């Protein structure tokens, strides 16, 4: 490092507040600081502006109907179609411009540019094909696909015919697919033969077929041929209820499908996510509120303009990809990028090469990726011209100030604002973050709540805590992008998100408080630092995993008596899975058995849930009432000093486990 660099590091190290550059502010979509006060005064009508970003078939009567909390309704009696909003209405002005730039794994040169006209054509054909297969309005269509262009095409085709989609992350296991299809009574699946990972073809249909075996009702499956065009083939034969995507599209060439008029409150999609219990939750999002929310936040926070080439490196199988690769950016008529591969193949400069080649204007990624980039070193981004970038974003987990500053300096050249966006699958879109053209940034803190949102940090009684003190994050007023319920389970919806801080007998919306299960603190300026989940949900590489789901996979292994799963700190992944396992009498505590446990977790959930360590122990630390003291297990995994163990039934076991994990 040169002397100048050392000095720069020292300066950055100390700096706690960063102003957006004048150049950014001058061109920002939102640059008037008055927006916060204005939205507060005009709430809930302030959200008319978000709805105005869309084209409505029938305009709505009421912005918010809060007569039956927490079942809020937004933009009531308005009707619209999401695919019209993401495609058709842009055709006149942007028909020949790229809607989706798809960058494939570098096995070949078959990157794809889909203009808005191309997208229109393909979505219509797919919509016609799905309808001919029998898909009707409100039928849930499951998608189990990696990052290939047919995924957003299928999603938008469903939106066109009013069929909600339920996308299952391709890295999830066959079991996870079956659970979700059963839970949603989904009779249709769109999947693919396989895809590439670091240059090698991977069989995906095999996994999909295995999942289908666990589905309790009849299904029709559409299979995209991703590998065949490169000559790779796993030799699958399609069954009678399986149809080739390419043939269906050819059969419906040139078809046009009239978009179905959907009520604002009609379901646009379901997304399953992890919660406290072993059963994933089917989060329901609606057409009007969700689309308004993602469009508005894409414009206000990501500063997206139609002429941009916007790059979000998330997977569409998670909510970030739904909201900020597909719906938000396309609603605004911009060019959205999709990357099939990983950031380290063929080399660790892959993302920077893509940014340079396509002239990407925004990059939205996760802290776990940034920590990996940091570890690899700045020589990788330094090989590329990243000057097209105007804004950087992060999402999914807390970002430590060091990683934030590295991103700001080495990717953004100290010229791009960084938006650290806190939100969840359930919130539909961003909730707490700086407006980049208005607010200063404080690394490590997501920022204030967006205008129009009432977020408080409270103690267990629901009273606001002093600045600087840790508490629980709560949202005190509804917002258009919020989940409407858990699929066919209103009771669990109330139990999971509202019961903690609401008077659930009241019909006064002021008595209802949304609890996202995150811990947080706030500073004197109202900036919020999110500390992480306070329930039994882990955040591994920005992916949300339920400890109960992992535990139930482990106790399903023959020879396991009991298991407890906790998260331990990890330098890149943020958190890693630690599994403490008690074996049954006669079962050997061998490496082979460890491997069997790991495999069971991969089968039940997927490789992302793979335990970092499986620790055999004769007992788990338990309170006198028999509750497992997870906190102690976490401390052990983190190599920390152990807290008070006097309330335990079996305090001596803690030291034994500690020695196994930490050594002496
Ligand atoms: C965490 C991802 C700190 C949080 C969009 C939340 C964050 C969970 C941030 C939701 C952030 C997300 N800072 N923590 N900027 N963004 N989280 O549903 O714990 O996959 O509850 O949605 O990720 O994860 P989900």
Count helical runs. 22
- CATH structural architecture of the domain at 537-662: 2-Layer Sandwich
Query: Which ligands accompany this protein?
Result: 5'-O-[(S)-ethoxy(hydroxy)phosphoryl]adenosine
Biggest beta sheet summary:
8 strands, mixed
The rounded Rg comes to 25 Å
Strand order of the largest sheet: 12-11-8-6-7-14-15-23
Q: Provide the low-confidence segments as ranges.
A: none
Walkthrough of the structure:
By secondary structure, this protein is an alpha/beta fold. The protein has 22 helices and 30 strands. 31% of the residues lie in helices and 21% in strands. The strands form 8 sheets. It has an 8-stranded mixed beta sheet with strand order 12-11-8-6-7-14-15-23, with helices on both faces. Strand 28 and strand 29 form a beta hairpin. The longest helix has 18 residues. The two termini are 38 Å apart. The model has no long low-confidence stretch (mean pLDDT 95).
């Amino acid at each position: 490092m040169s002397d100048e660099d050392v000095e720069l590091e020292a300066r950055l190290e100390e700096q706690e507040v960063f102003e957006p550059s004048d150049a950014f502010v001058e061109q920002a979509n939102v640059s008037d600081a008055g927006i916060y006060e204005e939205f507060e005064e005009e709430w809930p009508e302030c959200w008319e502006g978000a709805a105005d970003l869309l084209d409505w078939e029938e305009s709505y009567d009421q912005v918010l109907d809060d007569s039956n909390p927490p079942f809020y309704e937004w933009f009531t009696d308005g009707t619209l179609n999401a695919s019209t909003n993401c495609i058709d209405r842009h055709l006149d002005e942007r028909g020949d411009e790229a809607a989706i730039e798809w960058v494939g794994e570098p096995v070949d040169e078959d990157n794809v540019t889909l203009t808005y006209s191309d997208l229109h054509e393909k979505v219509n054909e797919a919509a016609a094909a799905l309808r001919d297969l029998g898909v009707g309005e409100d039928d849930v269509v499951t998608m189990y696909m990696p990052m290939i262009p047919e995924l957003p095409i299928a999603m938008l085709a469903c939106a066109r015919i009013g069929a909600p989609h339920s996308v299952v992350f391709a890295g999830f296991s066959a079991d996870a697919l079956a659970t979700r299809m059963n839970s949603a009574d989904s009779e249709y699946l769109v999947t693919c033969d396989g895809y590439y990972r670091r240059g090698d073809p991977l069989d995906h249909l095999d996994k999909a077929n295995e999942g289908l075996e666990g589905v309790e009702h009849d299904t029709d499956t559409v299979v995209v041929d991703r590998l065949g065009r490169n000559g790779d083939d796993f030799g699958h034969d399609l069954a009678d209820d399986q149809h080739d995507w390419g043939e269906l599209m050819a059969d419906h060439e040139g078809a046009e499908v009239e978009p179905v008029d959907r009520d604002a409150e009609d379901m646009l999609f379901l997304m399953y996510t992890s919660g406290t219990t072993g059963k994933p939750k089917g989060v329901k999002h609606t057409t009007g509120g969700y689309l308004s929310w993602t469009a508005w936040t894409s414009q206000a926070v990501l500063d997206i303009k139609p002429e941009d080439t916007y790059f979000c490196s998330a997977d569409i199988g998670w909510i970030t990809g739904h909201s900020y690769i597909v719906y938000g950016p396309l609603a605004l008529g911009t060019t959205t990028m999709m990357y099939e591969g990983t950031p380290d193949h063929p080399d660790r400069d892959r993302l920077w090469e893509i940014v340079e080649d396509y002239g990407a204007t925004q990059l939205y990624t996760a802290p776990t990726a940034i920590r990996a980039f940091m570890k690899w070193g700045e020589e990788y981004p330094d090989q590329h011209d990243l000057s097209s970038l105007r804004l950087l974003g992060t999402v999914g987990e807390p970002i430590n100030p060091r990683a934030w500053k590295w991103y700001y300096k080495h990717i953004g050249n100290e010229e791009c604002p960084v938006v650290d966006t806190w939100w969840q699958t359930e919130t539909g879109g961003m909730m707490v973050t700086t407006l980049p053209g208005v607010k200063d940034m404080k690394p490590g803190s997501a920022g204030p709540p967006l205008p129009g949102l009432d977020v408080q940090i409270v103690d267990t009684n629901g009273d606001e805590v002093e600045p600087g003190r840790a508490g629980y994050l709560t949202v005190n007023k509804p917002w258009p992008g919020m989940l409407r319920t858990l699929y066919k389970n209103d009771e669990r919806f109330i139990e999971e998100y509202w019961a903690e801080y609401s008077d659930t007998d009241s019909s006064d919306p002021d008595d209802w408080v949304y609890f996202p299960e995150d811990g947080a603190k706030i500073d004197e300026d109202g900036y919020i630092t999110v500390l992480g989940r306070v329930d039994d949900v882990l955040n591994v590489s920005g992916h949300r995993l339920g400890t109960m789901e992992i535990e139930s996979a482990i106790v399903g292994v023959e020879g396991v008596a009991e298991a407890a799963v906790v998260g331990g700190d990890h330098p890149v992944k943020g958190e890693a899975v630690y599994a403490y396992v008690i074996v049954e009498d006669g079962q050997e505590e061998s490496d082979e058995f460890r491997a069997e446990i790991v495999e069971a977790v991969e089968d039940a959930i997927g490789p992302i849930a793979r335990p970092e360590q499986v620790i055999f122990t004769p007992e788990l630390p338990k309170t006198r009432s028999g509750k497992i003291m997870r906190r102690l297990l976490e401390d052990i995994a983190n190599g920390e000093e152990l807290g008070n163990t006097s309330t335990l039934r079996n305090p001596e076991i803690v030291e034994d486990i500690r020695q196994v994990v930490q050594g002496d």
